[in-house]
Here is the input.
Amino acid sequence: MSSKRTPQLIMVRPWADGRAKSLQSEILCPPDKSVTHRSVMLAAMAKGDSEVVNPLMGADCRSTMSVFRALGVSIEGDESGNATGTVRVSSPGWDGWRSPVTPLDYGNSGTTARLLTGLFAATPGLFVTCFGDASLSTRPMGRVVTPLRTMGAKILGRDDGRLLPMAVQGQQLKSAKHTVDKATAQVKSALILAGLGCEGDTSVTLPSGSRDHTERMLAALGAKIKVEKHGHLETVQVTGPFRPAARRHLVPGDPSSAAFFAVLAVLASGTLVIKGVLDNDTRTGFIMLLEQMGAKFDRRRLLDRPGYLEPVMDLVVHGGSELKAIETDAAAAPTFIDEVPILAVAAMFASGTSRIRGLGELRVKESDRLAKVVELLSIAGAKVWTEGDDLLIDGPAESVQPFVFDPAEDHRLAMAASILAKFADGPCRVADPQCVAVSFPDFFEVLGSLG
Ligand code: S3P
Here is the structure.
Protein backbone atom coordinates (compact mmCIF):
# COMPACT_ATOMS: atom_id res chain seq x y z
CA MET A 1 0.00 0.00 0.00
CA SER A 2 2.72 2.48 0.81
CA SER A 3 6.42 2.24 0.27
CA LYS A 4 6.97 3.36 3.90
CA ARG A 5 5.91 0.45 6.08
CA THR A 6 4.45 1.18 9.49
CA PRO A 7 5.03 -2.13 11.25
CA GLN A 8 1.89 -3.00 13.11
CA LEU A 9 0.00 -6.17 13.95
CA ILE A 10 -3.66 -6.66 14.64
CA MET A 11 -4.79 -9.50 16.85
CA VAL A 12 -7.97 -11.21 15.66
CA ARG A 13 -9.69 -13.30 18.31
CA PRO A 14 -11.62 -16.33 17.14
CA TRP A 15 -15.28 -16.73 17.91
CA ALA A 16 -15.63 -18.79 21.08
CA ASP A 17 -18.22 -20.99 19.41
CA GLY A 18 -16.36 -21.14 16.06
CA ARG A 19 -18.53 -22.44 13.24
CA ALA A 20 -21.50 -22.78 15.61
CA LYS A 21 -21.60 -18.97 15.93
CA SER A 22 -25.09 -17.87 14.95
CA LEU A 23 -25.28 -14.63 12.97
CA GLN A 24 -28.57 -12.75 12.69
CA SER A 25 -27.24 -9.53 11.28
CA GLU A 26 -27.33 -7.03 8.49
CA ILE A 27 -24.38 -5.06 7.08
CA LEU A 28 -24.10 -2.43 4.37
CA CYS A 29 -21.88 -3.36 1.44
CA PRO A 30 -19.07 -0.80 0.90
CA PRO A 31 -19.07 0.99 -2.48
CA ASP A 32 -17.55 -0.64 -5.53
CA LYS A 33 -13.93 0.21 -6.25
CA SER A 34 -13.98 -0.39 -10.02
CA VAL A 35 -17.17 1.66 -10.51
CA THR A 36 -15.86 4.50 -8.33
CA HIS A 37 -12.64 4.74 -10.38
CA ARG A 38 -14.55 4.83 -13.65
CA SER A 39 -17.16 7.30 -12.37
CA VAL A 40 -14.44 9.73 -11.32
CA MET A 41 -12.62 9.31 -14.65
CA LEU A 42 -15.77 9.87 -16.74
CA ALA A 43 -16.75 12.84 -14.58
CA ALA A 44 -13.28 14.35 -15.06
CA MET A 45 -13.54 13.82 -18.83
CA ALA A 46 -16.88 15.66 -18.94
CA LYS A 47 -16.97 19.45 -19.11
CA GLY A 48 -19.00 20.89 -16.24
CA ASP A 49 -20.35 19.61 -12.95
CA SER A 50 -20.85 15.92 -12.21
CA GLU A 51 -21.54 14.04 -9.00
CA VAL A 52 -20.36 10.67 -7.79
CA VAL A 53 -22.82 9.41 -5.23
CA ASN A 54 -21.69 6.80 -2.68
CA PRO A 55 -18.07 6.71 -3.87
CA LEU A 56 -15.57 4.37 -2.26
CA MET A 57 -13.16 6.63 -0.38
CA GLY A 58 -10.55 3.89 -0.16
CA ALA A 59 -6.89 4.61 -0.88
CA ASP A 60 -7.02 3.40 -4.51
CA CYS A 61 -9.91 5.66 -5.48
CA ARG A 62 -8.32 8.57 -3.61
CA SER A 63 -5.28 8.06 -5.86
CA THR A 64 -7.49 8.51 -8.94
CA MET A 65 -9.10 11.61 -7.40
CA SER A 66 -5.81 13.27 -6.49
CA VAL A 67 -4.42 12.64 -9.98
CA PHE A 68 -7.32 14.56 -11.53
CA ARG A 69 -6.98 17.37 -9.01
CA ALA A 70 -3.39 17.78 -10.21
CA LEU A 71 -4.77 18.12 -13.77
CA GLY A 72 -7.02 21.02 -12.75
CA VAL A 73 -10.25 19.15 -11.97
CA SER A 74 -12.00 20.20 -8.77
CA ILE A 75 -13.11 17.21 -6.70
CA GLU A 76 -14.78 18.01 -3.42
CA GLY A 77 -17.01 16.29 -0.96
CA ASP A 78 -17.18 13.79 1.78
CA GLU A 79 -13.63 12.86 2.67
CA SER A 80 -14.62 10.82 5.70
CA GLY A 81 -14.60 7.45 4.03
CA ASN A 82 -18.26 7.32 4.93
CA ALA A 83 -20.16 5.13 2.49
CA THR A 84 -23.05 7.53 2.02
CA GLY A 85 -21.15 10.58 0.80
CA THR A 86 -21.22 12.43 -2.50
CA VAL A 87 -18.25 13.80 -4.36
CA ARG A 88 -18.70 16.82 -6.65
CA VAL A 89 -16.50 16.94 -9.72
CA SER A 90 -16.14 20.18 -11.71
CA SER A 91 -13.99 19.77 -14.77
CA PRO A 92 -12.78 21.91 -17.67
CA GLY A 93 -13.33 18.70 -19.66
CA TRP A 94 -10.94 16.25 -21.30
CA ASP A 95 -9.61 18.96 -23.64
CA GLY A 96 -8.95 21.37 -20.77
CA TRP A 97 -6.68 19.33 -18.45
CA ARG A 98 -3.38 20.99 -17.66
CA SER A 99 -0.06 19.17 -17.42
CA PRO A 100 0.81 18.68 -13.75
CA VAL A 101 4.11 20.17 -12.61
CA THR A 102 4.96 17.32 -10.25
CA PRO A 103 4.86 13.54 -10.82
CA LEU A 104 1.51 11.82 -10.30
CA ASP A 105 1.34 9.27 -7.48
CA TYR A 106 -0.75 6.22 -8.44
CA GLY A 107 -0.19 4.66 -5.00
CA ASN A 108 -1.13 0.97 -4.92
CA SER A 109 -3.75 1.21 -7.65
CA GLY A 110 -3.44 -0.90 -10.80
CA THR A 111 -6.75 0.43 -12.14
CA THR A 112 -5.54 4.03 -11.84
CA ALA A 113 -2.22 3.23 -13.51
CA ARG A 114 -3.54 1.18 -16.42
CA LEU A 115 -6.72 3.07 -17.30
CA LEU A 116 -5.08 6.48 -16.99
CA THR A 117 -2.14 5.43 -19.14
CA GLY A 118 -4.65 4.82 -21.95
CA LEU A 119 -6.49 8.04 -21.32
CA PHE A 120 -3.43 10.28 -20.92
CA ALA A 121 -1.67 8.78 -23.96
CA ALA A 122 -4.72 9.88 -26.00
CA THR A 123 -4.80 13.47 -24.65
CA PRO A 124 -2.96 15.73 -27.14
CA GLY A 125 -0.70 18.26 -25.40
CA LEU A 126 -0.82 16.64 -21.97
CA PHE A 127 2.48 15.60 -20.40
CA VAL A 128 2.58 13.54 -17.21
CA THR A 129 5.17 11.65 -15.24
CA CYS A 130 3.89 9.05 -12.81
CA PHE A 131 4.99 6.51 -10.23
CA GLY A 132 3.48 4.01 -7.82
CA ASP A 133 4.28 2.36 -4.51
CA ALA A 134 6.66 -0.57 -4.17
CA SER A 135 3.98 -3.12 -5.12
CA LEU A 136 2.58 -1.22 -8.13
CA SER A 137 6.14 -0.61 -9.37
CA THR A 138 6.58 -4.36 -9.88
CA ARG A 139 3.29 -4.87 -11.77
CA PRO A 140 3.31 -5.25 -15.57
CA MET A 141 2.46 -2.11 -17.54
CA GLY A 142 3.69 -3.44 -20.90
CA ARG A 143 0.25 -5.00 -21.38
CA VAL A 144 -1.18 -1.48 -21.89
CA VAL A 145 1.92 0.30 -23.19
CA THR A 146 2.62 -2.11 -26.08
CA PRO A 147 -0.85 -1.92 -27.70
CA LEU A 148 -1.07 1.84 -27.05
CA ARG A 149 2.22 2.33 -28.91
CA THR A 150 0.67 0.69 -31.99
CA MET A 151 -1.83 3.58 -31.90
CA GLY A 152 1.04 6.10 -31.85
CA ALA A 153 1.32 6.58 -28.08
CA LYS A 154 4.51 8.19 -26.77
CA ILE A 155 5.32 6.51 -23.49
CA LEU A 156 8.68 6.13 -21.79
CA GLY A 157 9.13 4.00 -18.73
CA ARG A 158 11.43 1.77 -16.77
CA ASP A 159 12.40 -1.42 -18.61
CA ASP A 160 11.24 0.13 -21.92
CA GLY A 161 7.80 0.99 -20.53
CA ARG A 162 7.09 -2.36 -18.92
CA LEU A 163 7.21 -0.86 -15.42
CA LEU A 164 6.52 2.37 -13.54
CA PRO A 165 7.77 5.08 -13.24
CA MET A 166 6.63 6.31 -16.64
CA ALA A 167 6.31 9.50 -18.66
CA VAL A 168 3.44 9.96 -21.10
CA GLN A 169 3.36 12.61 -23.81
CA GLY A 170 -0.26 12.72 -24.98
CA GLN A 171 -0.93 12.53 -28.73
CA GLN A 172 -3.72 12.40 -31.25
CA LEU A 173 -3.76 8.59 -31.52
CA LYS A 174 -4.86 6.45 -34.47
CA SER A 175 -7.67 3.94 -34.01
CA ALA A 176 -6.63 0.28 -34.06
CA LYS A 177 -7.88 -3.29 -33.77
CA HIS A 178 -6.30 -4.99 -30.77
CA THR A 179 -6.13 -8.62 -29.76
CA VAL A 180 -5.30 -9.31 -26.12
CA ASP A 181 -4.56 -12.83 -24.87
CA LYS A 182 -5.85 -12.35 -21.30
CA ALA A 183 -9.30 -11.58 -19.94
CA THR A 184 -8.33 -8.28 -18.34
CA ALA A 185 -10.70 -5.40 -17.73
CA GLN A 186 -7.89 -2.97 -17.03
CA VAL A 187 -6.26 -3.47 -20.43
CA LYS A 188 -9.62 -3.59 -22.24
CA SER A 189 -10.70 -0.36 -20.52
CA ALA A 190 -7.39 1.45 -21.18
CA LEU A 191 -7.69 0.72 -24.91
CA ILE A 192 -11.37 1.66 -25.06
CA LEU A 193 -10.67 4.97 -23.30
CA ALA A 194 -7.82 5.67 -25.72
CA GLY A 195 -10.18 4.80 -28.59
CA LEU A 196 -12.57 7.54 -27.46
CA GLY A 197 -9.94 10.08 -28.47
CA CYS A 198 -9.42 8.64 -31.99
CA GLU A 199 -11.26 9.12 -35.28
CA GLY A 200 -13.08 5.92 -36.23
CA ASP A 201 -13.36 2.44 -34.72
CA THR A 202 -11.05 1.01 -32.09
CA SER A 203 -11.69 -2.59 -31.05
CA VAL A 204 -10.34 -5.02 -28.48
CA THR A 205 -10.80 -8.77 -28.85
CA LEU A 206 -10.02 -10.77 -25.71
CA PRO A 207 -11.13 -13.88 -23.79
CA SER A 208 -14.60 -13.30 -22.27
CA GLY A 209 -15.44 -12.83 -18.63
CA SER A 210 -13.60 -9.72 -17.41
CA ARG A 211 -15.66 -7.01 -15.73
CA ASP A 212 -17.64 -4.82 -18.11
CA HIS A 213 -18.33 -1.57 -16.21
CA THR A 214 -16.50 0.64 -18.72
CA GLU A 215 -18.66 -0.67 -21.57
CA ARG A 216 -21.90 -0.29 -19.61
CA MET A 217 -21.08 3.21 -18.44
CA LEU A 218 -20.03 4.44 -21.87
CA ALA A 219 -23.19 2.98 -23.45
CA ALA A 220 -25.29 4.79 -20.83
CA LEU A 221 -23.47 8.03 -21.64
CA GLY A 222 -24.36 7.66 -25.31
CA ALA A 223 -21.01 6.47 -26.74
CA LYS A 224 -21.10 4.30 -29.86
CA ILE A 225 -19.97 1.04 -28.29
CA LYS A 226 -20.67 -2.48 -29.47
CA VAL A 227 -19.94 -5.77 -27.70
CA GLU A 228 -19.97 -9.06 -29.62
CA LYS A 229 -19.39 -12.54 -28.19
CA HIS A 230 -18.00 -15.31 -30.33
CA GLY A 231 -17.16 -18.57 -28.57
CA HIS A 232 -14.85 -17.85 -25.64
CA LEU A 233 -13.92 -14.44 -27.07
CA GLU A 234 -15.52 -11.03 -26.89
CA THR A 235 -14.91 -7.97 -29.05
CA VAL A 236 -15.61 -4.49 -27.78
CA GLN A 237 -15.64 -1.76 -30.42
CA VAL A 238 -15.89 1.93 -29.74
CA THR A 239 -16.25 4.72 -32.28
CA GLY A 240 -14.49 7.99 -31.60
CA PRO A 241 -14.19 10.77 -31.06
CA PHE A 242 -16.50 10.86 -28.04
CA ARG A 243 -16.72 13.26 -25.11
CA PRO A 244 -18.88 12.12 -22.15
CA ALA A 245 -21.35 14.62 -20.73
CA ALA A 246 -21.49 15.62 -17.07
CA ARG A 247 -23.90 13.52 -15.01
CA ARG A 248 -24.69 11.95 -11.66
CA HIS A 249 -22.93 8.60 -11.21
CA LEU A 250 -24.31 6.21 -8.58
CA VAL A 251 -21.95 3.64 -7.13
CA PRO A 252 -23.40 0.29 -6.01
CA GLY A 253 -21.87 -2.00 -3.34
CA ASP A 254 -18.69 -3.94 -4.12
CA PRO A 255 -19.19 -7.71 -4.58
CA SER A 256 -15.47 -8.21 -3.96
CA SER A 257 -15.83 -6.67 -0.49
CA ALA A 258 -19.11 -8.51 0.15
CA ALA A 259 -17.32 -11.80 -0.55
CA PHE A 260 -15.33 -11.67 2.73
CA PHE A 261 -18.47 -11.45 4.83
CA ALA A 262 -20.36 -13.88 2.59
CA VAL A 263 -17.72 -16.54 3.33
CA LEU A 264 -17.69 -15.64 7.04
CA ALA A 265 -21.46 -16.21 7.16
CA VAL A 266 -21.32 -19.39 5.05
CA LEU A 267 -18.81 -20.85 7.53
CA ALA A 268 -20.89 -19.81 10.56
CA SER A 269 -24.56 -20.51 11.17
CA GLY A 270 -27.57 -18.20 11.07
CA THR A 271 -28.15 -15.52 8.45
CA LEU A 272 -26.31 -12.43 7.30
CA VAL A 273 -27.85 -9.87 4.95
CA ILE A 274 -25.35 -7.83 2.90
CA LYS A 275 -27.21 -4.81 1.61
CA GLY A 276 -26.80 -3.07 -1.73
CA VAL A 277 -24.44 -5.42 -3.61
CA LEU A 278 -23.80 -4.93 -7.33
CA ASP A 279 -25.35 -7.90 -9.16
CA ASN A 280 -23.29 -8.26 -12.35
CA ASP A 281 -22.29 -11.71 -13.64
CA THR A 282 -18.75 -10.58 -14.40
CA ARG A 283 -18.34 -9.90 -10.66
CA THR A 284 -20.43 -12.50 -8.86
CA GLY A 285 -18.69 -15.73 -9.90
CA PHE A 286 -17.81 -16.30 -6.24
CA ILE A 287 -21.51 -16.73 -5.36
CA MET A 288 -21.88 -19.40 -8.03
CA LEU A 289 -18.82 -21.23 -6.71
CA LEU A 290 -19.97 -21.10 -3.11
CA GLU A 291 -23.38 -22.41 -4.24
CA GLN A 292 -21.65 -25.28 -6.03
CA MET A 293 -19.87 -26.01 -2.74
CA GLY A 294 -23.27 -26.25 -1.03
CA ALA A 295 -23.72 -22.75 0.42
CA LYS A 296 -27.18 -21.18 0.37
CA PHE A 297 -27.95 -17.64 -0.78
CA ASP A 298 -30.98 -15.58 -1.71
CA ARG A 299 -30.44 -12.71 -4.10
CA ARG A 300 -33.07 -10.08 -3.41
CA ARG A 301 -32.98 -7.83 -6.48
CA LEU A 302 -33.71 -4.24 -5.57
CA LEU A 303 -36.06 -2.84 -8.13
CA ASP A 304 -36.38 0.63 -6.67
CA ARG A 305 -32.93 1.90 -7.55
CA PRO A 306 -33.45 4.64 -10.15
CA GLY A 307 -30.22 5.95 -11.63
CA TYR A 308 -28.10 2.82 -11.12
CA LEU A 309 -26.64 1.54 -14.38
CA GLU A 310 -26.39 -2.02 -13.10
CA PRO A 311 -28.66 -4.24 -11.00
CA VAL A 312 -28.27 -4.13 -7.23
CA MET A 313 -29.32 -6.75 -4.67
CA ASP A 314 -29.45 -7.51 -1.00
CA LEU A 315 -27.46 -10.73 -0.68
CA VAL A 316 -28.88 -13.03 1.98
CA VAL A 317 -26.29 -15.55 3.16
CA HIS A 318 -27.42 -18.63 5.07
CA GLY A 319 -24.80 -20.36 7.16
CA GLY A 320 -24.58 -23.91 8.40
CA SER A 321 -24.34 -25.84 5.12
CA GLU A 322 -21.97 -28.77 4.70
CA LEU A 323 -19.44 -27.74 2.05
CA LYS A 324 -17.96 -29.97 -0.62
CA ALA A 325 -14.89 -29.41 -2.79
CA ILE A 326 -15.18 -27.83 -6.25
CA GLU A 327 -13.29 -27.86 -9.52
CA THR A 328 -13.48 -24.74 -11.64
CA ASP A 329 -12.81 -24.00 -15.33
CA ALA A 330 -9.93 -21.66 -16.14
CA ALA A 331 -12.32 -19.62 -18.33
CA ALA A 332 -14.44 -18.72 -15.27
CA ALA A 333 -11.51 -17.32 -13.26
CA PRO A 334 -11.96 -13.63 -14.31
CA THR A 335 -15.43 -13.59 -12.70
CA PHE A 336 -13.96 -14.30 -9.24
CA ILE A 337 -10.28 -13.39 -9.65
CA ASP A 338 -10.20 -10.90 -6.76
CA GLU A 339 -12.10 -13.32 -4.51
CA VAL A 340 -9.65 -16.25 -4.72
CA PRO A 341 -8.01 -15.56 -1.32
CA ILE A 342 -11.36 -15.76 0.48
CA LEU A 343 -12.66 -18.62 -1.71
CA ALA A 344 -9.52 -20.56 -0.73
CA VAL A 345 -10.49 -20.04 2.92
CA ALA A 346 -13.95 -21.51 2.16
CA ALA A 347 -12.37 -24.45 0.30
CA MET A 348 -10.30 -25.26 3.39
CA PHE A 349 -13.57 -26.24 5.13
CA ALA A 350 -15.00 -28.22 2.19
CA SER A 351 -14.66 -31.99 2.04
CA GLY A 352 -12.47 -33.25 -0.79
CA THR A 353 -9.81 -31.66 -2.96
CA SER A 354 -10.76 -28.35 -4.57
CA ARG A 355 -9.00 -27.31 -7.75
CA ILE A 356 -9.33 -23.69 -8.85
CA ARG A 357 -7.92 -23.42 -12.35
CA GLY A 358 -6.30 -20.65 -14.36
CA LEU A 359 -4.95 -18.36 -11.64
CA GLY A 360 -1.73 -17.17 -13.33
CA GLU A 361 -2.89 -13.53 -13.11
CA LEU A 362 -2.85 -13.76 -9.31
CA ARG A 363 0.94 -13.74 -9.45
CA VAL A 364 0.87 -10.11 -10.68
CA LYS A 365 -1.81 -8.62 -8.43
CA GLU A 366 -1.02 -6.40 -5.42
CA SER A 367 1.29 -9.24 -4.30
CA ASP A 368 2.01 -12.73 -5.63
CA ARG A 369 -1.39 -13.76 -4.33
CA LEU A 370 -1.07 -17.35 -5.42
CA ALA A 371 2.07 -17.86 -3.30
CA LYS A 372 0.65 -15.87 -0.40
CA VAL A 373 -2.63 -17.83 -0.34
CA VAL A 374 -0.61 -21.05 -0.17
CA GLU A 375 1.43 -19.54 2.67
CA LEU A 376 -1.66 -18.41 4.62
CA LEU A 377 -3.50 -21.71 4.40
CA SER A 378 -0.32 -23.70 5.13
CA ILE A 379 0.48 -21.82 8.33
CA ALA A 380 -3.14 -22.37 9.38
CA GLY A 381 -2.55 -26.12 9.00
CA ALA A 382 -4.19 -26.87 5.63
CA LYS A 383 -2.84 -29.06 2.86
CA VAL A 384 -2.57 -26.66 -0.06
CA TRP A 385 -0.38 -26.52 -3.15
CA THR A 386 -0.21 -25.29 -6.75
CA GLU A 387 0.10 -27.23 -9.99
CA GLY A 388 1.01 -24.78 -12.77
CA ASP A 389 -1.62 -22.03 -12.55
CA ASP A 390 -4.07 -24.17 -10.51
CA LEU A 391 -4.61 -23.91 -6.77
CA LEU A 392 -5.40 -27.14 -4.91
CA ILE A 393 -6.76 -27.35 -1.38
CA ASP A 394 -7.51 -30.52 0.60
CA GLY A 395 -10.37 -30.22 3.06
CA PRO A 396 -11.97 -30.21 5.43
CA ALA A 397 -9.41 -28.86 7.86
CA GLU A 398 -9.82 -30.50 11.26
CA SER A 399 -8.75 -27.32 12.97
CA VAL A 400 -7.27 -23.93 12.15
CA GLN A 401 -3.92 -23.42 13.87
CA PRO A 402 -3.38 -19.95 15.30
CA PHE A 403 -1.10 -18.04 12.94
CA VAL A 404 0.91 -14.86 12.46
CA PHE A 405 0.57 -13.73 8.84
CA ASP A 406 2.23 -10.98 6.84
CA PRO A 407 -0.10 -10.12 3.94
CA ALA A 408 2.69 -8.23 2.13
CA GLU A 409 0.52 -5.07 2.37
CA ASP A 410 -2.09 -6.73 0.13
CA HIS A 411 -5.57 -5.69 1.29
CA ARG A 412 -7.38 -8.81 0.10
CA LEU A 413 -4.90 -11.13 1.84
CA ALA A 414 -5.19 -9.19 5.10
CA MET A 415 -9.00 -9.50 4.99
CA ALA A 416 -8.99 -13.20 4.03
CA ALA A 417 -6.59 -13.95 6.89
CA SER A 418 -8.77 -12.03 9.37
CA ILE A 419 -11.88 -13.98 8.34
CA LEU A 420 -10.01 -17.28 8.67
CA ALA A 421 -8.83 -16.19 12.14
CA LYS A 422 -12.44 -16.16 13.41
CA PHE A 423 -12.38 -19.98 13.16
CA ALA A 424 -8.90 -20.58 14.60
CA ASP A 425 -8.05 -22.43 17.79
CA GLY A 426 -6.59 -19.26 19.32
CA PRO A 427 -5.86 -15.60 18.59
CA CYS A 428 -4.12 -14.87 15.27
CA ARG A 429 -2.05 -11.90 14.22
CA VAL A 430 -2.12 -10.09 10.88
CA ALA A 431 0.60 -7.58 9.96
CA ASP A 432 -0.04 -4.15 8.40
CA PRO A 433 -3.81 -4.30 8.90
CA GLN A 434 -4.10 -0.68 7.68
CA CYS A 435 -3.66 -1.97 4.10
CA VAL A 436 -7.39 -2.87 4.07
CA ALA A 437 -7.96 0.88 3.46
CA VAL A 438 -7.18 0.25 -0.22
CA SER A 439 -10.65 -1.20 -0.80
CA PHE A 440 -12.54 -1.54 2.52
CA PRO A 441 -11.54 1.12 5.07
CA ASP A 442 -14.15 -0.05 7.64
CA PHE A 443 -13.36 -3.75 7.37
CA PHE A 444 -12.27 -4.27 10.99
CA GLU A 445 -15.17 -2.21 12.35
CA VAL A 446 -17.65 -4.35 10.40
CA LEU A 447 -15.90 -7.53 11.52
CA GLY A 448 -15.97 -6.33 15.13
CA SER A 449 -19.69 -5.50 14.85
CA LEU A 450 -20.41 -9.19 14.24
CA GLY A 451 -18.94 -10.20 17.60
C1 S3P B 1 -10.14 -4.24 -12.24
C2 S3P B 1 -9.98 -5.35 -13.02
C3 S3P B 1 -9.44 -6.61 -12.53
C4 S3P B 1 -9.36 -6.67 -11.02
C5 S3P B 1 -8.88 -5.40 -10.42
C6 S3P B 1 -9.75 -4.23 -10.81
C7 S3P B 1 -10.71 -3.02 -12.84
O1 S3P B 1 -8.17 -6.80 -13.08
O2 S3P B 1 -8.54 -7.76 -10.62
O3 S3P B 1 -8.90 -5.51 -9.00
O4 S3P B 1 -11.15 -2.11 -12.10
O5 S3P B 1 -10.76 -2.96 -14.08
P1 S3P B 1 -7.98 -7.36 -14.58
O6 S3P B 1 -7.38 -6.27 -15.38
O7 S3P B 1 -7.06 -8.53 -14.42
O8 S3P B 1 -9.33 -7.74 -15.12
Summary: The pocket of shikimate-3-phosphate is lined by residues 34, 37, 111, 184-186, 189, 210-211, 334, 337-338, 361 (CB under 6 Å). The longest strand covers residues 269-278. Residues 281 and 335 are 7 Å apart (CA to CA).
